[in-house]
Design goal:
This protein has one domain (4-136). The chain contains six helices and no strands. It has helices at residues 4-29, 35-58, 66-92, 96-122, 124-129, 132-136. Helix 1 (4-29) packs parallel to helix 3 (66-92), helix 2 (35-58) packs antiparallel against helix 3 and helix 3 packs antiparallel against helix 4. The structure holds protoporphyrin IX containing FE. The site of protoporphyrin IX containing FE has 14 residues, from helix 1 and helix 2.
């Protein structure tokens, strides 16, 4: 299993590649029906996952909990399956996957939030000794 920060960054670029291909396809075909799929792949996938990866890199104490792995699974699955659900919803008018995956995305962010509270309120020495500037160097 790669490190959490690396896994987040790799997944984010996978989402970006799919999102860009879809964006180029929409532009070429002049059919913008799937713009929300493209937007969520790029923002929930590329932007959010990459930011999570950089935050784990900046604060390594966050990686030292099962919460980090759970967060990777929830947010990683949602980043791909939520846009897929939006596609199914737009194309077949069946919104159930999108609804379920939006809740998985929310669960991922709540897990991240709990991990932030754990580190910054209950492991103060971890955030004090590992400054972002030092760990990025
Ligand atoms: C090769 C690069 C890209 C191409 C060719 C592309 C293409 C497009 C196209 C054709 C649309 C639909 C415009 C319309 O509905 O009139 C769109 C919408 C959008 N794109 Fe991109 N895009 C690219 C990269 C990105 C990136 C990197 C992001 C975000 C990080 C992004 C975020 C969005 C958003 C938020 C929308 C609006 C979606 C909506 O209205 O539902 N795009 N893009």
């Amino acid at each position: 299993m790669p490190k959490i920060d690396v896994a987040f960054i790799f997944l984010s670029v996978v989402c970006l590649m799919i999102g860009l291909v879809l964006g180029i396809g929409m532009g070429a075909s002049h059919n913008f029906q799937l713009a929300p799929v493209h937007a969520h792949l790029n923002l929930l996938g590329w932007a959010s996952l990459a930011l999570f990866g950089l935050i784990y890199r900046a604060y390594p104490a966050l990686t030292r909990s099962w919460l980090a792995k759970l967060h990777l699974w929830l947010s990683g699955v949602a980043a791909l399956a939520f846009p897929a659900g939006i596609y199914v919803s737009i194309t077949y008018e069946k919104p159930m996957l999108a609804i379920l995956m939006s809740l998985v995305a929310l669960a991922g962010v709540i897990t991240f939030f709990l991990n932030l509270i754990r580190v910054f309120f209950f492991v103060p020495e971890a955030s004090a000794t590992e400054s972002p500037a030092r760990s990025l160097a």
